Amino acid sequence: MVERTKPRTGSAALLSARELADYASVSESMIRELIRRGELPAVKLGRLTRVRLEDFLAYLEAHRIRRRSAPPLPVLRAAPRTTVIPRVTSHSKPAPLRPEGQL
Q1: Which domain holds residue 39?
Q2: Which of 90, 26, 99 is nearest to 56 (CA)?
Q3: Residue 45 pairs with which residues in a beta bridge?
Q4: pTM of the predicted model over 0.90
């Protein structure tokens, strides 16, 4: 079982990749990759690489997924009742009349 370390606090706290990985529940290699690509600012102290807690928290905030609020639902209104009147033109022929009793 991996024991999580409690990171040091304070904006000037310098944390190792392992401490940051434990803090964010990600792999240490992911933290190192972010540092290597320059996405996460780091400080080199001899052989040690450290990241300021303030910089790491700023990185997390910048990559936060923000939920967009859903647009309001449209108000549904009943369509006005209209009566359709067939248009009669001088070119149209009237329907033939059928004798009563025939369908």
Answers
A1: 14-62
A2: 26
A3: 48
A4: no
Is the Cα torsion angle 82, 85, 86, 88 positive or negative in sign?
negative
Give residue-wise pLDDT tens across range 43-101: 999 999 999 999 999 999 999 887 777 777 777 777 777 776 666 666 666 666 666 66
What is the side-by-side strand order in the sheet with 48-52?
A: 14-15, 48-52, 43-45
Q: How many domains does the structure of the chain reveal?
A: 1
Examine residue 8 and state whether it is found in any structural domain, yes or no.
no
Using alpha carbons only, give the angle 58, 21, 8 rounded to the nearest 5 degrees: 70
Nearest-5° Cα angle at 36, 35 to 42 = 35
In 3D, which of 14, 10, 66 has the Cα closest to residue 44? Answer: 14
